[in-house]
Amino acid sequence: MPHIESPWIETPLVESTVLSKIAGCRIFLKLENLQPSGSFKSRGIGNSVLKSVRDQESTPSDDRPLHFYSSSAGNAGMACVTAATSLGHASSVVVPLSTDEATITKLRAAGASEVIPHGESWFFADQFLRETVIPAAEARGEKGIYIHPFDNPAVWEGASTMVEEIQRQMPGGDKPDAIVCSVGGGGLFSGIMIGLDRAAWDKDVKVLAVETKGADSLAQSLEKKELVTLPAITSVAASLGAIRVAKNAFEQAQRPNVRSVVLEDAEACAACWRFLDDERILVEPACGVSIALAYDGRLKKYLKDLGPESKVVLVVCGGSKISLELLNKYKEKYQVRSEELANVYA
Is Cytoplasm there in the keyword field (predicted)? Predict the structure, then answer.
């Protein structure tokens, strides 16, 4: 079998002097915003795409051209297109009708064969993809491959490679005391838990699983002790917009080293503009909600015994649904509320 290049890269782990001083501990940034697609999704979805390509190569009798299909108005679709294009295959994305033209343009520029607007939400876009678009592709003689944005073991396995890198990159081979990650459908979180098990860190490293209010399907499920389906996503952190978290993520979140955290949109957005000032990195609110824990004493609320030598890794998951113009709009809308909430933690 010929060598296939990975559709994701090893990203830097850098200690932030500025955020460490603000948070009162050693803050390390895992810069997943540098992935080819602009977000951590390159790992999980890239691995899912790569696995399908390898499976095709192991069955030479099936010579149909591969065509990858995803349903996403954001990072998952971008990761699928980027991975498929890098491996020399076609890809298409079905996006909800509400998707802005800038996102559609980005997907096409990244190499999408087609971007199909359909449905009022991701649920209906995904249903149309599975029930109509892929069967039509199969009828044309293609091998249509469905790529789920988060609920797939191949996605979790790809995301787990992040922990392997952190293990190599931590100074002196030290373990972090905690890893902070955002949770949407749970693909990243599930991967981190797999990675911690593999590194034998599962007993020692705490995980803060962070969501925004209005996209907190994991937190609500944990509270009710059963999987909850949200009636709608009301948060501006659209990339966290899974109305129902993956079952595996729900089960993993019940482990003793995991704590669920929910912050407001104002806190997530404020972290985005503060992070841009502090680190010159532009991220979307779905990423900002994790970074927010470094500001205004929030970490001390969720991590006991936090001290100057405590080591906390923030997964800077990145994201494509942000611009300076949009960030300025968030600042106009949320600055007053964010300052009110900052005083709560002070």
Answer: yes
Q: Hey, what CATH class is 13-40+152-341 in?
A: alpha beta
State pLDDT tens for residues 263-281.
999 999 999 999 999 999 9
Position 266, amino acid: A
Domain boundaries, the chain: 13-40+152-341, 42-147
What is the C-alpha to C-alpha distance for residues 217 and 233, in angstroms, rounded to an integer?
A: 9
Residue 2 has pLDDT above 60, yes or no: no
What confidence tens digit (pLDDT) does each residue in 59-73 have? Answer: 777 788 899 999 987
pTM of the model: 0.94
CA distances to 178, 299, 313, 327 from 14, in Å? 15, 19, 9, 24
CATH topology identical between 13-40+152-341 and 42-147 = yes
3-state secondary structure 233-284: CCCCCHHHCCCCCCHHHHHHCCCCCEEEEEECHHHHHHHHHHHHHHHCCCCC
What average pLDDT does range 95-120 have in this prediction? Answer: 91
The residues, ordered by sequence, that sit 6+ positions from 45 with a Cβ below 8 Å of its Cβ are 37, 70, 76, 79, 80, 83, 147, 149, 155, 158
